[in-house]
Amino acid sequence: MSSRRCIDDDILTVLWTQDQLSHKVEDIASQITHDFSSSSSSCCPVIVGVATGAFLFLADLVRNIKLPVTVDFVRAESYGSGTVSTGVPKLSCDVKLDVTGKHVVLVEDIVDTGNTVSRLISYLEAKGATSVSVCTLLDKPARRKVHFELLGDGKFYSGFECPDYFVVGYGLDFNEQYRNLPYIGVLKPEIYK
Ligand code: 5GP
Ligand code: MG
Ligand code: MG
């Protein structure tokens, strides 16, 4: 049998370990639990993940939120197979749940230029959401191009500030690979050059 390359060998540096990610996710989930538990039960949030990148973060996040929530996904793609955003996120999958009159928490892996969340906030507003919060594991403010306004009394939850590197792991991909790494790291430049 031929030996396969180990995906860890393609990582230059680990930025956040599995343990650090897990503690941060618990922190964010308790903030969400706290913020939404003061509202009546009809206000329990609809958690909308942005596929595919947010799938692991969302799975860990909802298991730590101590409130009844509903879960749905939208699909937005802006990178294709490269490492630079095209700037025009393509929404290729609609929410299944009715978000009319609901408080939505939009869950992202990373906010980079801001194009994707900006587009999705408008989309959820048009669908009748009462508020839209954004919950992102990583925020890369150095690359922000679009200023976005949260809807209603929506809040911005952010895990870690990400330095201006292309990162992979814990849901984040390069060319659809590396999503299954349990940590987040910087990809070796020779992999994408
Ligand atoms: P934005 O629309 O804010 O520019 O980018 C949002 C999407 O681009 C993110 O949801 C993510 O899928 C992708 N993205 C942005 N920065 C990175 C990065 O450093 N690594 C990876 N793998 N994806 C990124
Ligand atoms: Mg994403
Ligand atoms: Mg991607």
UniProtKB/TrEMBL annotation:
Its main location: cytoplasm. It catalyses: IMP + diphosphate = hypoxanthine + 5-phospho-alpha-D-ribose 1-diphosphate. Its cofactor is Mg(2+). It is an enzyme of class 2 (transferase). Pathway: Purine metabolism; IMP biosynthesis via salvage pathway; IMP from hypoxanthine: step 1/1. The keyword Transferase applies. Signal peptide: none annotated. It is found in: Cytoplasm. GO terms for molecular function: hypoxanthine phosphoribosyltransferase activity; magnesium ion binding; nucleotide binding. Residues 18-174 form the Phosphoribosyltransferase domain. Keywords: Cytoplasm, Glycosyltransferase, Magnesium, Metal-binding, Nucleotide-binding, Purine salvage, Transferase. NCBIfam families: HGPRTase. This is Hypoxanthine phosphoribosyltransferase. It comes from Ambrosia artemisiifolia (Common ragweed).
